[in-house]
Design brief:
Blueprint: H1 4-11, H2 16-34, H3 44-47, E1 51-53, E2 59-64, E3 69-74, E4 80-81, E5 90-91, H4 95-99, E6 114-121, E7 124-131, H5 136-154, E8 164-168, E9 171-175, H6 185-191, H7 198-215, E10 222-226, H8 232-236, E11 239-241, E12 247-249, E13 255-261, E14 264-266, H9 304-318, H10 325-330, H11 332-338, H12 349-365
Antiparallel strand pairs: 1-2, 2-3, 4-5, 6-7, 7-9, 8-9, 10-13, 11-12, 13-14
Helix pairs in contact: 7-9, 7-12
Length: 375
Amino acid sequence: MFPRNLQYLCQMKSNWRQTLLCCCMFVYFSSLYLLKDHLIPGNPILKHKPRAFSSPQNFTCTWSVVENREICKPVCSHGYFGLYGMKKCQPLLTCEDIEQLKLEGNIGNSGYVKEVWHSYWQKFPVVVKKLRKFDRAGKIAGPGYLQGINLMKNFYRPSVLLQLVGHCNDTIVTEVHRLLDARDLETRFKEYPLYNTLQTRMQLCVSYVDILRTLHSGHDGKIYVQCDANHIQKLAGQFLFTEDFRLVLSDVDSMETILLNGTNKRLIKCTVWGEVTGSFPAPEELWPYKGGYDASKLPLYDEKIEIWKIPDVCWYFLGDDVSTRQLKRSLKDIHKQCKNRNARKRPTAEQVYKTYLTIYKDMIKSNFSGFKETV
């Protein structure tokens, strides 16, 4: 634990000044040893990674850019939830629990389909979402909203999907993410300029594809595809920032499910909100025939529509600064594959993830040498 010469010094017969110096150094090195896992020099987010540690109740910890310190929450099994600051997991809230929650104000990112409110369970902040069941949009999206609740209940992947705290009919309670959704990307970086780095921005690209590969993994014989993402701002609004600038999927109201049967797939088409246009959707999502749009005649497709969009999403996270040019060149080959008009020739989300992760690790290993340009 301590330098051998220090131990030797402490054992020597010496005058009172040497003894005092020895004691001070002993206390100093003891403190360093005990605090070594919490001392994070420089930019904390570049050094600190989410970690878990063993105890009667397991916890996962991460660096909060909001509080500028490490925060921890319990690791919970399916049917339970754990929020930052909690000492142990709790069962999902019931209707009776949810009825007692006081709605303390709209948090500002309600949509056409649901209202979003801030509240507290005990002393812990939570978000309450309610379906706008009397509005036209709510009636249209109602079935998808209820299906999304089932997905949150059954597809338990807290690292990629917003944590469910409780549910009752068409009301759900979820974990709070104070940095809000990815539409506010540049605003968040202005608020936290220390974290506006090439590494943080590439980390968001990796995090996005990590979510896709999890949804496309075929868990329980199902592949999940996000259908409510016809332009980049709409898609960005489906994801929340974690407090260490990663992503979690928050909006699962318009997920289509591809059922797997061996090597066969039951294909899908996203038609709830009508015809899609522009260059952001994949070519197979566009109306291919002359004459008026008819959803019933639209050809079917699979999860490769989301692979087409990956380059645009990553470009959005990287931004337009000149310092990103070299990094974007390193992504050119994999992005070209993603933009293949033949969906079958596009890579899988898993393949894109591995490529992204390799480039991300190379950035860190080289200390950004060869990845960053300046004016």
